Amino acid sequence: xxxxxxxxxxxxxxxxxxxxxxxxxxxxxxxxxxxxxxxxxxxxxxxxxxxxxxxxxxxxxxxxxxxxxxxxxxxxxxxxxxxxxxxxxxxxxxxxxxxxxxxxxxxxxxxxxxxxxxxxxxxxxxxxxxxxxxxxxxxxxxxxxxxxxxxxxxxxxxxxxxxxxxxxxxxxxxxxxxxxxxxxxxxxxxxxxxxxxxxxxxxxxxxxxxxxxxxxxxxxxxxxxxxxxxxxxxxxxxxxxxxxxxxxxxxxxxxxxxxxxxxxxxxxxxxxxxxxxxxxxxxxxxxxxxxxxxxxxxxxxxxxxxxxxxxxxxxxxxxxxxxxxxxxxxxxxxxxxxxxxxx
Length: 343
Ligand SMILES: Nc1nc2c(ncn2[C@@H]2O[C@H](COP(=O)(O)OP(=O)(O)OP(=O)(O)O)[C@@H](O)[C@H]2O)c(=O)[nH]1
Ligand SMILES: [Mg+2]
Ligand SMILES: [Zn+2]
What we know:
- With about 350 residues, the chain is α/β, with parallel strands linked by helices.
- It has 3 domains: about 15-85, CATH 2.40.50.140; about 90-250, P-loop containing nucleotide triphosphate hydrolases (Rossmann fold, 3-Layer(aba) Sandwich); about 260-330, Probable gtpase engc, domain 3 (Ribonucleotide Reductase Protein R1, domain 1, Orthogonal Bundle).
- Helix content is about 30%, strand content about 25%.
- The protein contains 10 helices and 13 strands.
- Strands 10-9-8-11-13-12 form a 6-stranded mixed β-sheet, sandwiched between helices.
- About 40% of the residues are buried.
């Protein structure tokens, strides 16, 4: 396979070649814009190149992911290969539900991570919490994007849930049908910055990319009528430059599930204030319901924390107990799940 072919000069996905040239010139390095098994598309000062990523040279080190800055090298008989993945500034990752101790990096060097949720269905707080964990844990700025504003039956109800879960996180509501909110989204981006979109299939991530770019660059899927589930249209993580100096946006395939690891971390990352308060409760095993000396209830009674936020926190803690019990059960039966990662 020829690996050093310049793809259709700047390629169809390159809406703004001069913009890209400026981006790669700043770093004088190549940036991975797409990964397919064993091969990567990288943006270089020469244009978009397809290079091998699973060469022996790259194998000893970390496998490249979309968003990586890399150094290329000429390899005998292989053409250009990724020689080195430069240290990642930020990394969006998840745990394989079957092997929690394996961290799977989805995207790197992003400045902001948007948890994308459709307003065409009720917001599930547990899902939002887990997406936020991914966003916060990446080291980038978390953002919440609520799509399909034109189909929203109850945006204020959705906002109430979002506020209870993530009060201080910036929220943008968008519609690619009437264009509302796209300016707000652009305002969160900016030249040289990269925004990653994560969320379930059908949330409207690729549609947002297309709307930002101003043309139908990425394939957009249908949402099944029966259960309003998406069809997992996007299969690769793709980095796209938004013309007009608005930065880059990184589309990802829909996430099917986020599990125990994310739930555990949501307690500290999303409900850190409540977890801290719980440390001040009189009883160590305080359930924050009717116990005397409950610091959490006191914060709710004084209006510091909303009732809904407390309820969602307690739901998460309860769900976590269930997940842990099921996990223990599975391990007893010798099922998959693997060892807990030592902390
Ligand atoms: N009414 C309306 N429909 C939208 C909007 N954004 C996306 N959709 C529709 O939602 C469906 C799913 O959109 P996609 O952009 O493919 O969703 P996705 O998040 O990329 O899905 P995966 O690639 O499967 O992860 C499509 O039918 C879109 O037309 C919007 O703002 N308003
Ligand atoms: Mg998509
Ligand atoms: Zn308490």
